[in-house]
Amino acid sequence: MTSTIVVNNIAKQYGDVRAVDGVSFEVEEGEFFGILGPNGAGKTTTLEIIEGLREANSGTVSVFGQSPWPRNQALLPRIGVQLQASSFFELLTAREQIHTFASLYGVSGKAADEMLERVGLADKAGTRTEKLSGGQAQRLSIACALVHNPDLVFLDEPTSGLDPQARRNLWDLLRDINDQGRTVVLTTHYLDEAEQLCDRVSIMDSGRILQSGPPATLVRGLDAPTRISIESGTLAEAQARELFGDAEVSDDGVSLTIATRTPAPVLAALAERGALAGLSVAGATLEDVFLKLTGREYRA
C-alpha cells in the first residue's frame, strides 16, 4: 500500500532533554495509526514534527511525498489537526466557530453546517462554545479539523477528560472518519481506545519507539497468563492453590482469581466442582503490553 507518512530517524532535543530520539515508522493510506506512551514519552512532539509545527534536529519526514518543514503551504489543505487542548474564538457560537474555520479554506457555509450535522452538533449550532460540554467541545474541535475535507487527520488525545458515554460516542465518530477513507493518526493515554480503534500502534517511551504492530499481534506476543475469576467463597483459596499448583492464585474477598497459561484444565476442574459462580475469563490486553514495555511507575 501507499505510505501517507514516512518518518525516518527523527530526533528533537531541548537542551539536555532528548524529547524524540531516533523515531522511525510509516503510516499507510487509509490506516488508523496510534502512537501510545506515558507522559513525556515524546508523542506530541513527534506529532508536531510530522504536522510541520516543529522542526526536527535531525532525520526526515515525508507527508504525501513532501516535507512538512519549513511550513509547507501545499500540505495544509490535505491535513486536519485536532490539538490536545481545544481553543476556540471567544464569544462565538458553534456555527460561527466552524464557519470561521471554513472561511480560511474557502469552504462554503453550507458545507460547514453539514459538518456540524455530521458530528451531531446541529442542535447546538446557536450555543456559544464556552457553554458546550466537554464531549461537545471535542466534537466541534474535530469538526473544525475536518471542515475542509482533509485526506489525513491528526488527533492528539481527543477523548482526554471525557466521561465514558462521551468517549464511546466520540469513538463512533472517529470510526466513521476512518471508514470514509481518511488516514487517521491518534495519540492517546487510553489503551482500550487504541485497541478498539487502531489498525496498528507504536508504543513510545523516553523519545523512542519500543514496539510496533497491530494491537492483537502485540498482545499475542506477550505470552501473558489467562486470568480466570470466580466469586470469592465458591472455592477456598487454599484448595485452589492445591488444585492448581503451577498457577498464581489470589483472593481479594470479592473474586478468587487464577492466573494460568493452561486455562482449559483449570476451567474443567472448576466445572467438575460446580465452582463457576461469577465466572469471568480475561486474556492479556494492550495495557499489559504497554506496562511491560514502559513499566508501572507513576509519571507526572
What coarse outline follows from CA principal-axis ratios?
globular
- Sketch the major β-sheet: 6 strands, mixed
CATH structural architecture of the largest domain? 3-Layer(aba) Sandwich
Based on CA atoms alone, the radius of gyration comes out at 23 Å
Pfam families: ABC_tran
Membrane topology: Peripheral membrane protein
Domain ABC transporter: 5-231
Family: Belongs to the ABC transporter superfamily.
Describe the secondary structure blueprint for this structure:
Elements: E1 3-14, E2 17-28, E3 32-36, H1 43-51, E4 58-63, E5 79-82, H2 94-104, H3 109-118, H4 134-146, E6 152-156, H5 164-179, E7 183-188, H6 191-197, E8 200-205, E9 208-213, H7 215-220, E10 226-231, H8 237-243, E11 248-251, E12 255-260, H9 263-272, E13 280-282, H10 286-294
Parallel strand pairs: 3-7, 3-8, 5-6, 6-7
Antiparallel strand pairs: 1-2, 1-4, 8-9, 10-12, 10-13, 11-12
Helix pairs in contact: 2-3, 2-4, 4-5
